[in-house]
Amino acid sequence: MAMPHAAILGIGAYAPSRVMTNAELEQKVDTSNEWIIERTGIEERHIAAPDEAASDLALKAARDAMAMAGVTPQDLDLIVCATVTGDTPFPSTACWLQSKLGAPQAAAFDIAAGCTGFLYGIHVVQNLIRSGAYKKVLLVGVEVLSRVLDWTDRSTCVLLGDAAGAAILGAAVDESGILASNIAADGDKGELLHLPAGGSRHPASHETVDGRLHYFKMNGRETFKHATRNMGEIAQKTLRDAGLGLGDVDLLVPHQANLRIITYLAKALDVPMEKVFTNVQRYGNTSSASIPLALTEAYKAGRVQKGQVILMVAFGAGLTWGATALRW
Ligand SMILES: CC(C)(COP(=O)(O)OP(=O)(O)OC[C@H]1O[C@@H](n2cnc3c(N)ncnc32)[C@H](O)[C@@H]1OP(=O)(O)O)[C@@H](O)C(=O)NCCC(=O)NCCS
User: Fold this and answer.
1) For a substitution probing ligand 1, which of 38, 39, 189 has the most ligand atoms within 8 Å of its CB?
2) Where are the domains positioned within the chain?
3) Cα gap 288→316, rounded to integer Å
4) Which of 40, 66, 120, 242 could form a disulfide with 113 if both were Cys (CB 3.0 to 4.6 A apart)?
5) What is the CATH number of domain 6-174?
6) Hey, what CATH topology would domain 178-327 get?
7) Is residue 4 very low, low, confident or very high in pLDDT (cuts 50, 70, 90)?
């Protein structure tokens, strides 16, 4: 029997209502609106309320995606959350979300792949659907990065934001669906982007708190280099696997880390910027949430039409990177 093809049946997103502008950051650290816009393109980002954790953001995005797909919590047989800033180290955020949704029949687990989390999720989930093991899967990318940012470090705190994006995946009913996907990693470069303490290597202690080791650390320059090279290569491989060329891409939805990286990637791939969706200007880098948030906004703006080829590509901590090509 031919394996069913997996497709995205619904998408949704949520960003907390509180918006933090670059002007506000100028009050916190030695930076300027001009510097942030010139180096990153970011103008503002959303910050979760003190009582909002990852599963709260995820719930709102999930409900939108389920409404679009016409799926109820009882229809779900699996919930996967891509996150590195979950509610708790354990249980998983997917389990907290399962409880909030009221979907006791669904299995639930998290994926930690930094900013590539959502595309790692698509890769895993589409194979589970194709195998016939699961029929209706909720995949969420969610981050509350504001909780792990060092608000005294200007080189990182200006870059990130909080949000959630969700998709319902199931067997495709027509030609639409996931055409090809690839994921990759290079653990040798783990320290380029990492959160040093709070795990079994450096459990929480007065020393880790005093040393500011519970915050996001990044070597921006090195990360930039690897991001552009690896995303370009995996995007091209994924299109080849789908039997397509760059000219077939109707919309490129890249991970929204930084406008310079996106522009560089589009140029390297020879995809005109009119075919590239960007919203990093309004959200900053929301890590695992970035691709589903961008896809949802692109869809709502009418930039994703039936039959079009969408190429998604991401890069993040691990290092990890991945790409998915799909026909909408
Ligand atoms: C972070 C990034 C924007 C910094 O830009 P850059 O051109 O590499 O800048 P550098 O880090 O070399 O810093 C240049 C100068 O700006 C300063 N600077 C850093 N952050 C600043 C800020 N927010 N405001 C003002 N100046 C800042 C640095 O201190 C440095 O000053 P110095 O030359 O006096 O030492 C860039 O490296 C980048 O985009 N990297 C990729 C990050 C990323 O996307 N990560 C997530 C991947 S998922």
Assistant:
1) 39
2) 6-174, 178-327
3) 9
4) 120
5) 3.40.47.10
6) Peroxisomal Thiolase; Chain A, domain 1 (3.40.47)
7) confident
